[in-house]
Amino acid sequence: MSPEPGRSAAQIRSEIDLQRRDLGRSVEALRGRVTDLTDWRRQVREHKNELVAVAAVAGFAIGGLLALRRRR
Q1: Which helix (H) or strand (E) holds 9?
Q2: Domain limits at 64?
């Protein structure tokens, strides 16, 4: 944003205040988004099927590795 020639100090202050409010709203929106993404209980609720599938695959893989070790 290039400065406009002939702007008064009041106009500059007004633009700074407007940008400060916009930045404040952006920070609050970002804070809310980060809170949503880091809420592990909500993530578990929303991705329960995927977690069960991963746990099942991991269980079979670990069980298979243990079975192979017992054979040796």
Answers
A1: helix 9-37
A2: 41-72
